[in-house]
Model the fold of this input.
Amino acid sequence: MKLPNYVSGRWSLGQGAGELLFDPVTGDELVSISSQGIDLEAALQFARARGGPALRELSYTQRADLLEKIAEALAANREEYFRLSLLNLGATQADASFDVDGAIYTMKYYAKIGRALAEGKMLKEGALVPLSKSNTFAGQHFLMPTKGAAVFINAFNFPAWGFCEKAAPALLAGVPIVVKPASPTAWLTHRMVEDIVKADILPPGAISIICDSARDLLEHAREEDIVSFTGSGDTAARIRSHANILGRSVRVNIEADSINSAILGPDSSPGTDLFDLLAKEVVREMTLKAGQKCTTIRRVLVPRQWLKAFGDAVSARLSSMKVGNPRNPEVKVGPVVNKAQQSSCLEGLAKLREESEVLFGGNKNFQPIDADLEKSSFVEPTLLSSKNGLRAKYVHDIEVFGPVATLVAYDSREDLIAVTRRGLGSLVASVFSNDLDFTRDTVPGIGDLHGRVLVVDSNVAGQHTGHGNVVPSCLHGGPGRAGGGEELAGLRALLLYHRRFVVQGPVNGIAELSKSCVDTALLYS
Done:
């Protein structure tokens, strides 16, 4: 079966045999995808000319109602998405829930908070700026929904949530979306778009999906468009440097590689609740979705005196995690997404082993449960230990996108901050400590190179949202190596899909313009 593309308001099959998608557990062929012969320039123009104006005719509240209907349509098909997650991603029930339920929740969240913007169609930013002695001539800053399209080039690890976390704020802003899911896991995204189209919720041109290669899509992007990419730093660099993107100054939002850190404070010795809590969190991050999360803990920074004890604690927990075919109810850890990703993980792991000691795993004599090792795409959960800190290279530079983490010893607070910053920009770091002085010094020391810093003490041990959990009310993104992008953060995510401009003119004229506006103060409330 070949999955059709949905562009220009209709379903269209791509030409040729297309690219095959595989079951990462059995190696069986599933479906094929192709974008060959699809007119991508026409698809973008249809989105701009038909989808955009129809969405912008609606108020923010009316668009919030559309999101609510989308969430309902997706929730009605939840079990089918779980089935496809198993087939196409080798996902356990927990993996599928993290992706699918997270997607539905995000759509519902934006539907709910979008109603706070009432019947406005534009945003007013700040107070009037007097520009004359009599105060009859002034300036006012506004934000208008862009009249282009939002092009989403998404990653393979979150085909459901990755789609919805971008689609929700874009559609709420009144911007049509063109989705290009990662090819290996495009089936799930395709089915979700198909269900939205069948439900007849959005106007024609408001949503499109292109499966397989993006081909010449970026060549047709224009000044009013936004390109939002999630994936590798190498691909991000190619997108940023694309001649048409540069020539037209097309806005690009990037989420790329991220070597995230978790920090154990020197006060959290073996036997304390935070020591045990972080050990549990590391195992959860390594095994959920087989470590294929952009926010997964890659480095665990531990006081040198606790390094062995912490390694033993994590290894003991990992030893109880059964790895194999998710169709077996005892299995807790599934495969990585395909053979190519398995090879990438094993190559990166080999580099890490050059300067680190393997404490658990390593793929030697590894046999997954109910799966053929040759046909499947498993990587054994592996914990390593590096005692070199700043002198280490690979642990700070190579992101193994799978169930792999490395312990790194530190000796002082200054050493800790320097080692953490060697990640060169990350989505998230977490600090587990009851020492307020330690936290007070550490967070400012690393905050500028992280999009999010999670602080956990004993008071919030059972309530924090988790190192790797991205919540729609808070910023998602990170500087430097992580891409420099910003997404989510509640209604503030709408700003990505708006253009800021200032009107200078008579105060009474500005007042008329402001009648159809919502004050941006609501975005930050």
Observations:
- The chain has two domains: 42-256+485-524, 260-472.
- The mean pLDDT is 96.
- The chain has 15 helices and 23 strands.
- The two ends are 48 Å apart (CA to CA).
